[in-house]
Amino acid sequence: MMDIAQVVEETAAKLLEIAATKLPSEVKEALIKDEKDTEGSLGKSQLKAINENVNLAETFIKPMCQDTGLVSFFVKIGDKFPIKSKVKTALIKATEKATEKVPLRPNAVDMFEGNTKNNVGLRGYVPWFYFDLVEGDKCEIIAMPKGGGSSNVGKMKMVPPGKGIKGVKEFVVEAVAAAGPLACPPYTVGVGVGGGEDMCMNLAKKALLRPLYQYHEDENIALIEKELKDILNRLEIGAMGLGEGTSVFDVHMEFAARHPASLPVGVVISCWALRHAGATIDKEGNVEFHPH
Amino acid sequence: MEYHLTTPIPPEELKKIKIGDVVYVTGTVVTARDEAHLKALELHKEGKQPPVDFQGIGLFHCGPVMKKNEQGEWTVVAAGPTTSARMEIFQDEFIKVFHPGMIIGKGGMGARTTKACQEETCIYGYFTGGAALLAADRIKKVKDVFWYEELGMPECLWNFEVEEFGPLTITIDTHGGNLTDESKKNIEANKEKILQEL
């Protein structure tokens, strides 16, 4: 009998390696296309360096960026999957293991005790988990490490509900303009609308997991996503903020119901290195890695 | 224009360089992020010297991924730039006290750093953000590490010997020029226009 906890641990460590070293194929293609299409030499040279770097990372299985991020996992556990709370323990162990093996930069800093050196926080919150309970007998794990530079430009606003969807759009424009050259553009933008002040940020982060150029199944939301993508590119941030090349590859939005008095909007911005990787494990311990 | 500089970089060389130029550096580059800036400046206030002489060398806003090889020597895995804007609060003082030849980072810096670069003859260049393996490739030797135990891998001082480290796009020169500021003004103007049209 295969030790399922061990399978979860090894799979998650592998997912952290994949995320750190290999971009999802549609992100890679978007960067290559952008290098080809960018005319100005300042922007083109930045994209050329990015693409060379992405190739080196994939070839030598090394982290594409020195900031291998703060680790979070999106996990769906099926009713009949043999382990539950042990999944959490296995994911923490996987984080330690990948830190050593890939290696990942130790990025978990305790405010009082300093860097923990293994990417696991001392107070139980890092890595961060988004757990969901689902039907079935499988467990889906998505690893998403996110760099500090792009997290620093994330923003949340409680928009007055009277401003409606126009207020949402205004805030997204303001947030991305404020990020400007700071967080390694070309960006991908996740927007969460509704829920509470915490939920909108979670939804915004989750929205980044949807593949580029795959729009929301609700036609109304898809239209706003496309409109925002066009609008944000008119900011002319460009590659590395030098004004040349694409500013924003895509905008993905998730909506939750909101309180009548509130219109929370969360904006989570990813740098060009939009990193995540997923796999599904069945109850026997067979692993299927998601297309990447 | 393209320049190939060797550390310690003479001030007269730095004065030739203008925003938009591309620079490659050979010689000594030392990493320093938030904590290392703070600590170096605190030591200076106490009348003590930090363990590295920053005069004329490259100061790199970078927290690398490092690994020890089988001989127990440190090697560079990945070493791209971090967001420089965080260092804006003390970069001018650092330049005035320690006189680095150039600052290497990404995302640009503000008015205080630009003024210090003009007054003290220093320049600031972008290494492409996230291009950590290209950067690692140009680092030929890890000469030393200081404050590792205290500050940890990303924040401590790594002393690197580099060869043709670049390309570095100069966005702050010694003449008060700031390319990122120009770009930011453009973004701001575009934003105002978009908001009016929404």
Question: Notable features of this structure?
Answer:
heterodimer, A: 292 residues, alpha+beta, Dihydrodipicolinate Reductase, domain 2, 2 domains, four-stranded mixed beta sheet, 8 helices, globular, B: 198 residues, alpha/beta, fumarase, five-stranded mixed beta barrel, two-stranded antiparallel ribbon, 7 helices, 30% strand
Taking pLDDT < 50 over at least 5 consecutive residues as the criterion, the unreliable ranges of chain A are none
Please work out how many helical segments of chain A DSSP would assign: 8
* CATH architectural arrangement of chain B: Alpha-Beta Barrel
Rg of chain A, Cα atoms, Å:
19 Å
Briefly note the structural class of the backbone of chain B.
alpha/beta
Beta-strand share of residues of chain B: 25-35%
Distance between the termini of chain B: 41 Å
**Which percent range fits the helix content of chain B?**
25-40%
Q: What proportion strand of chain A? A: 15-25%
Describe this structure in words.
The complex is a heterodimer of chains A (292) and B (198). Helix content of chain A is 38%, strand content 24%. Chain A contains eight helices and eleven strands. Chain A is globular, with a radius of gyration of 19 Å. Chain A starts with a helix and ends with a strand. Chain B has 198 residues and is of the alpha/beta class. Chain B has a single domain (2-197), classed as Alpha-Beta Barrel (fumarase). Chain B has seven helices and nine strands; from the N terminus they run βαβαβββαβαβαβαβα. In chain B, helix 2 packs across helix 3 and helix 3 (88-98) runs parallel beside helix 4. The longest helix of chain B is centred in the C-terminal third of the chain and has 19 residues, at 179-197. The model of chain B has no long low-confidence stretch (mean pLDDT 96).
Which helices and strands, and how do they pair?
The complex is a heterodimer of chains A (292) and B (198).
Chain A: H1 4-21, H2 25-37, H3 41-60, E1 70-78, H4 85-101, E2 109-110, E3 114-115, E4 128-134, E5 139-146, H5 148-151, E6 155-159, H6 164-179, E7 187-195, H7 199-207, H8 219-233, E8 248-258, E9 263-270, E10 277-281, E11 287-289
Parallel strand pairs in A: 1-4, 7-8
Antiparallel strand pairs in A: 1-5, 2-3, 5-10, 6-9, 7-9, 10-11
Helix pairs in contact in A: 1-4, 2-3
Chain B: E1 2-6, H1 11-16, E2 22-31, H2 34-45, E3 58-60, E4 65-68, E5 74-78, H3 88-98, E6 102-105, H4 111-120, E7 123-126, H5 132-138, E8 139-146, H6 148-151, E9 157-172, H7 179-197
Parallel strand pairs in B: 1-2, 2-3, 3-6, 6-7
Antiparallel strand pairs in B: 2-9, 4-5, 7-9, 8-9
